[in-house]
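Minutes, project check-in
Item: structure for the 127-residue chain
Input as provided by the requester:
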Amino acid sequence: QVQLVESGGGLVQAGGSLRLSCVASGRTFSSSCMGWFRQAPGKEREFVAAISWSGGRTSYAESVQGRFTTSRDNAKNTVYLQMNSLKPEDTAVYYCAASKPSWSDIYYRQTNEYDYWGQGTQVTVSS
C-alpha cells in the first residue's frame, strides 16, 4: 500500500511559479512511475507530467511542455513538480499518482495505469 500526500499549492499571479511536492509512504516508491494530473472544475482529470522510477525518463503534456519540470528524490520518497510561467488556465486541483512497481524504467500517461492517488492540492493562477 502506498499513501501520497501533496503540498505546495496556492494562489499565484500569472507568470509566477510554484513547486508542488508529493511525499510517498511505502517501500515501492523507488520502483514506481510517478505521475502528475490535474482537474479543473467541470473538466475531466488530465495528464500533466510523469517520471520513470529512475528519474531518467519524463513526459509532459503539450500544454505544459517547457514550463513545468518533474523530478524525484528516491532517498526522500518525494516527487516534485516545478511550475513556471503559470497561466490562469493552469488553475486546477493537482494530484500525484503512483503506478505499481515495475522493473521497466518507463512512464505512463493514462490515469488507469496508476494505482495510488494523493488527495490533491489546489493551484489557482490569477490574471
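Outcome recorded: The radius of gyration is 13 Å.
No further action items on this chain.
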